[in-house]
Structure formats: C-alpha cells, structure tokens
Amino acid sequence: MGAATEIHEEPGAGGPTASRGDNDIMSCLRRSTAAVHERVEAGLGLADPDIPAGRYRDLMISFYRLHTALEPRLEALFGEFEDPLLDWPGRRKLGRLTRDLSTLGIAPEGLTVLPAALIPAGNDLTFGFGALYVTEGATLGGQLIARNLSTRADLADATSYFTPYGDQAGRRWRDLRVVLRRWVGTDRERADAVVEAALGTFLAFEAALH
C-alpha cells in the first residue's frame, strides 16, 4: 500500500493538520485507519527491493481483483461528479494493472476468469470517498515502491500501477483532499460514513492481499 507516512499532510499544502482540528475529515481518516493501514503495509513486503517475482505477481493479481470489484462502483458514483478537481477518469487503475500483469506473463484473457475480490457494500458517495482515500493513498505511497524496484530487470517494467500520475502524484493527492474536505464539510454523519467505508476498504485489501 505504500509508505504509511506518505498519507500524512504535506507542509504548505493547505496548512498543517493541527490547524484544522481533530474533527477534520483527513485527520479522522488517518487516525481511524492507522492500525489497519500499518498491518496491511507490513504484510505486503513491497518495500523490499528483493521481493520474489512470484510474490510480486500474486500481489498484482490481488490488486487487479480488488480494482475489478471497486472501479465499476466508483465509475457509477463519480462518472459525472460535479467537482473537476476529482477527475475520476484519470484515477482509474485497471488498465495499468492489465498492462503490468501482461508484462509479468499473464495475458488479458487470463484475467477474465479471476473472481472479483470481496469489498464492502455501499453505493453512495460516502463509500466512494472512503474507497478513494485508500486507493489514492496507496498510489501516493507507490512512488517509493516503483523506485525500489527500478533496478529489477524482471519487475521494473511492471510497476505502472504504482506510478499512474508521473510527477503529479502529490498534486493529485492534494486535489482529492480539497474535494473531500469540501464535500464533507462539517457534516459529522457524512464524515463518520466516509471513515467507516475507508476502514472497510482497508479490511478488504487486507483480506485479499495476504
């Protein structure tokens, strides 16, 4: 899922977290998901530049199964979302996973028989934002994973899933934070539902990736 520290606020990017208070949605998400986030990350081994190729391939298959379940639902929720900063179409990941898995020797037709992973129920925007917090945070942390694997002749060309935004990963994460804060505002029920969805998504990733 990438380095846990990557999901922390960046100085100068909208002000330090402390100035927003403990009820800020990003603070609530980070605080509430910290334990499961750390468990998922610790169990993956993706920070290890010597990760076995077979283990890496299996993880990428699991990521594919997760996004196969998530992306159609997120497409339905965000396909016509009114805030252009979200830019949902630019956040899709399945195409890159398909490309990486092809590089690893798994043809696209071999992916069609894979069952989708189990993900939490939910068909409203609170679910969508909770899921995006997890997947976009993983993308931000994925920059480090790609760098660690850049010297691996067998894996370096199969890391596009982790680097979908090039040098714009930080900006894309900041954009999501702006949209999420704007959408949640001071609505505590909405904030609690987003946190619950993020927790459920992390737990789905934990189940699928281990």
From TrEMBL:
Gene3D superfamilies: Heme oxygenase-like. Residues 1-11 have a biased composition (Basic and acidic residues). SUPFAM superfamilies: Heme oxygenase-like. Residues 1-23 are annotated as: Disordered. It comes from the Bacteria. InterPro entries: Haem_Oase-like_multi-hlx. This is Heme oxygenase.
